Amino acid sequence: MLIESALIIFLISNQEIFGSKAPRIKPFHFSGELSIGFRTGVMCIVIDGDPPFEFEWLKDSLSLQEKSGVSIKSVDEFTSAMSIKNLNADSNGNYTCRVSNSAGWDEKIDVLNIKGANSPKIKPFMFSGELREGLRTNVMCSVIDGDPPFDFQWFKDNRPLPQEKGQYSVQPFDEFTAILTIKNLDSSSNGNYSCRVTNAAGLDQKSGVLSMKGGLK
């Protein structure tokens, strides 16, 4: 019994000395109010386990390397900090901190989702096929995907649409939608109308042709 007890004590002591207690990481979280052009950073902290530790950062399951705009620094033997200096659309993704020692490993993951990082996608629109001079019409430009804020622009035959009083009216419906109204159709109303939507990540554009009965040029 004495030999067995001594052996157990020896094994426990060796486990403590040689770091056989696996690491445990504190969860980390990105701020929820991040936009393109901002900077951010997170810390990976080992709250339990025996050093020495090896830290590894991953993005979308691939090893994250230090590069322009991305910095990884050791704070102390229990902490690693990762920072991104200038957020852009490519910064979105799943970020993982993985820590290992001789006894095992642990990892924590958080999602970085930047406001305005997804470019807009517009729903196609078209004018009615039963239009003629003297009528009025409107079309709706709706953003079905992407992150606000958005900027809406209308064009006719690739030129900015002149919002002349009594002819064209462009009104926002909500942050995802703008409505173009032509109040009094005439022969000059025929043409190719485009809605262009931009945000910090990119742009999209859709077009519709207006061709009236009895109103052709």
TrEMBL record:
SMART domains: IG, IGc2. GO terms for molecular function: axon guidance receptor activity. InterPro entries: Cell_Adh-Cytoskel_Orgn, Ig-like_dom, Ig-like_dom_sf, Ig-like_fold, Ig_I-set, Ig_sub, Ig_sub2. It comes from the Eukaryota. One of its GO terms (biological process) is synapse organization. PROSITE patterns: IG_LIKE. Residues 23-113, 120-211 form the Ig-like domain. This is Titin. The gene is Ttn_2.
